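Model it.
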Amino acid sequence: MTSRGKSMAGQLIVGLDVSSRARAEDIVTALGDSVSFYKIGYQCFYGADGFNLGKALIAAGKQVFFDLKLLDIDNTVEKGVAAFAETGAAMLTVHAYPKNMAAAAKGAAGSGLTVLGVTVLTSMDDQDVKDAGYERDAAGLVALRAQQAREAGIGGIVASPQEAEMVRTIVGPKLAIVTPGIRPAGAARGDQKRVMGPAEALAAGASHLVVARPIVEAADPAAAARAILAEMDGKRTSFA
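Modeled.
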């Protein structure tokens, strides 16, 4: 891998969407130094001892993103975020409601934890947003949540890559824009509806790309990760 590829490894976040800690550890071992950032979501957190796995990865020098989409009363969210901050985690998601994000910002204050507000899931389209009771389309709701995230003082948002360019104009150059729904060349969409390729997402303004199935379900996860890093290499951004 080129030195440039190594420097962008921190922009590729591999989702450990597996139910066994042994399987998760096998993936980490297979990926070796090609990946330095891992996402732990519901499946891994609850089914694969993901909290302790995350702490072990942090102790080993990896960055960890706990994708748990916290939502509760303000005090509970603030204290919960503060507890995650103490682990040394790099990122944590909360639902992008204004009071929820403000409480999370208080919990993360003074730490190295980046709180991310989840806007509209990449598995949702305009009809899904309408069915959920919103009068806006998906892009309009993402724009609203991005503005509210900036005002709440959190570190970034999660949005589909299709909204990355718009969001970057709203939040400015410093906030993280983490984009799931990344599909490299030849990969199936699965249940994702708002997707984009790696290079295009970075060029649009994304700071980090989340990729799970195209890597963790590959026969050779390391080769799959290297291929995605190669796609990213042509359109590196200054947002990191």
